[in-house]
Amino acid sequence: MTRVAVLVSGSGTNLQALIDATAQHEHPVHIAVVVCNRPGAPAIGRAQAAGIPVEVRSHRAFADRASYDQELVRTLEPYGVDWICCAGFMRILGPTLISAYDGHILNIHPSILPSFPGLNAQAQALAAGVRITGCTVHIVDAGVDTGQIVAQGVVPVHTNDTEDTLTARLLKMEHRAYTTVLRWVGDGTLQPGGQVAEGTVCSWSDV
To answer: What does the pLDDT average to over 166-195?
Structure first.
């Protein structure tokens, strides 16, 4: 069984989707640990309710990004994880962590990359006036939302949308995409670095 760590910072809605998915009978992935950088984040309670070990490591306790990344590597080592899933983890990963799990780190981003990378992707989409947006599951590399795209989902943008209404619609697609990719991780459909088995459907649309 493939062992996965989930990195979180906030409410943990994508974490909950991953927890629910892996609770299914004979799912090929086991969430071995959840790591959170914000003490008191709601995601912590979600993991605890599911009986998943939680490690809280505040980035504020470390002098720089490299030191924090080294602590994350030390924290993950005892759990023997094969892959890392970033699920609303509001930290840019540095070379120490990326090299330790090279090609084995996934992230979910609320846009159709390469459009609207970085923070506030929903606001960027609304400001640009686009009529469709979506989410992307990608491999984490040294850039900001620049890694190999694994899967994408598309949703409409309505003329009366706010950031909140668009975010709610996007979350449903994020849960669908991320849980699908997580199963690919476990059954070997997804290979390290982002290669997906030939013939696999890698996009969905609610438009």
So the answer is: 97
